[in-house]
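USER: For my understanding, would you kindly supply a protein sequence with its structure tokens?

ASSISTANT:
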Amino acid sequence: MPTRSRLAWVSAIFFLFFLLFAVGGLIPGALRDTIEVWLGLPFSVPPVAHFMLFVAMAFCLPWAWPRLHVAGTLVIMLVLGAVVELLQAWIPGRTPSLEDFLLDTLGAGLGCLIYLWVNRNAETTAVSLNKEN
């Protein structure tokens, strides 16, 4: 896949996860509870969503914008998590949660580690392929 096309797809995936996080984090509490009951999952959605969405966003962000590097990605992800948590103070039925912010932080850290691992393995594979030619 050409680089521009890959970057466009990764950017689109990042924004999809961002939209899911922003909407999920900013809907009123009663609606969120209704959706969670409707889903009927054997676990609470918010903690899993916080962690998994931040893993996915932190993995995609440095690919979409390589100049950010991992440090920039972590800063953006932590600010995003903090802003959404603080905005919940003004949403009916929602309260800011340090636990959610910590899950965001752990997810962002894991997403960055996965990105570094995948990126390093891709570079190693490219180098070994070049040596064979």
About this structure: The longest helix spans residues 98-132. The chain has one domain: 3-132. The chain is about 80% helix and 0% strand. Residues 3-132 form one domain.
